[in-house]
Amino acid sequence: MENQNRPAYTLRQLILYFLKLGTTGFGGPVALVGYMHKDLVENRKWISDEEYKQGLALAQLAPGPLAAQLGIYLGFVHYRILGATLAGIAFVLASFIMVVLLGIAYKMYGGLPWMQAVFYGVGAAVIGIIANSSYKLTTKSIGKFNLQSFKQNWLLWLFFIAAVAITFFTQHEQVLLFVAAGLLYMFVKVPPKRINKSTINSIVLLQIGFWNYESSTLTKIAIFFTKAGAFVFGSGLAIVPFLHAGVLTENHWLTEQQFVDAVAVAMITPGPVVITVGFIGYLVAGFPGASVAALATFLPCYLFTVLPAPYFKKIAKNTSIKAFVDGITAAVIGALAGAVVIIAIRSIVDVPTVLIAASSVLTLIYVKKVQEPYIILVAAVIGLILKSFL
After folding, report:
1. Cα–Cα distance between 71 and 110 in angstroms, integer?
2. Please, which pLDDT band fits residue 97 given cuts at 50, 70 and 90?
3. pLDDT, tens digit, for every residue of 159-196?
4. Does residue 19 lie within any of the structural domains?
5. Distance between CA 72 and CA 275 in Å, rounded?
6. Which residues constitute the domain of residue 202?
């Protein structure tokens, strides 16, 4: 009986797997989640299909970047807290080191013409990639852009449109809007039998405290990125509106161009897209800033995975919780769409950037096997050519 319960792999093997995936895994959250299923469920048979599905459901229900959260859960399956912790660190470590090294190069050479030429093309491509991802997230989480979907999910579409408009006009991340959307959708669709008012109040007060807190730069970084990490649902790109508003408008840490470049860096490195926070943190406060930003962003993801993991079978059946998450997700995706519009207006500055952005979108739609890093590489070459000869 003891042998039957013993995992078919060691903790060391699990850590090495996630270290390799974080070092070589390109393609964003959907691709990384697919690699895990193929490698761990189908090929190696370390994880059962049921365990994988439970992990994927938790990753979709709870806030946190999808791929990182699933990796943490799979580490938890047989090796509990230690496995979850080491799997999460291994998954993020390589890409964190890469973005810090890129941050060093960016600070050293960012003012040089060739570096500016590279990011001229890359920035436009990133707009196209984010726009395409925003569209995919919308159709997957809310529904297709047709009359039937608008009728069936009218309230979710209302949250989406409201979030687009509010994000665009205020240029701030509206955390309370997301919480309100989740609660309203839950009460309309599946009113819970018992409402823990103290829990709801604590969530609201926590967010207000985070919004107004003033202290040193590192403390500000820690508080801001913890707040951002706690509201990333589904895709790493969902963090973009939070970062854009907080980093540019609220704290004035980066310029618009630096922010777009930071997103581009996340696209060209393997592992979770959310690791862009490490690059931003480095530009703001060097290596300590990068470390604090990464830790603060991934800590909520870690806690939202390991705390409910032992009880998740019961949680997964709670339709009120699912409705709450659906409401938040619609608003978050709307905020992402609003952020895309803001960034595009400021970054698409001439005919070449319009063409590069449009080409990126069309390539992703019609050439299914092309991954984002290849598009960014081509855009970098185009940027160099255009700036060198025109």
Report:
1. 34
2. very high
3. 889 988 888 887 665 667 777 888 888 888 877 665 55
4. no
5. 15
6. 113-389
Separation of alpha carbons 36 and 13, rounded Å: 14
In angstroms, the CA 93 to CA 83 distance is 15
Domain count, the chain: 1
Q: What is the pLDDT of residue 74?
A: 95
* 14 in any annotated domain: no
Backbone angles phi, psi at 9, to 5 degrees: -150, 155
Output the pLDDT for position 79: 94
Query: What are φ and ψ of residue 63, in 5° steps?
Result: -65, 145
Are residues 117 and 384 in contact, defined by beta-carbon separation less than 8 angstroms? yes
Contacts of 63 (CB under 8 A, 6+ apart): 229, 230, 231, 232, 233, 300, 301, 304, 328
The full 3-state SS of the chain, as one line of letters, equals: CHHHHCCCCCHHHHHHHHHHHHHHCCCHHHHHHHHHHHHHHHHCCCCCHHHHHHHHHHHHHCCEEHHHHHHHHHHHHHHHHHHHHHHHHHHHHHHHHHHHHHHHHHHHHCCCHHHHHHHHHHHHHHHHHHHHHHHHHHHHHCCCCCHHHHHHCHHHHHHHHHHHHHHHHHCCCCHHHHHHHHHHHHHHHCCCCCCCHHHHHHHHHHHHHHHHCCCCHHHHHHHHHHHHHCCCEECHHHHHHHHHHHHHHHCCCCCHHHHHHHHHHHHHCCCCHHHHHHHHHHHHHHHHHHHHHHHHHHHHHHHHHHCCHHHHHHHHCCHHHHHHHHHHHHHHHHHHHHHHHHHHHHHCCCHHHHHHHHHHHHHHHHCCCCCHHHHHHHHHHHHHHHHHHC
The structure's pTM equals: 0.70
Asked whether residue 15 is assigned to any structural domain, the reply reads no
Residue at 92 is within a domain: no
Q: How far apart are CA 36 and CA 132, in angstroms?
A: 24
CA distance 120 to 376: 11
- Strands 64-65 vs 233-234: parallel, antiparallel or unpaired: parallel
Distance CA 79, CA 294 (A): 24
Residue 120 near residue 383 (C-beta atoms within 8 A)? yes
| Tens of pLDDT, residues 256-297 | 888 888 888 877 787 777 888 999 999 998 999 999 999 999
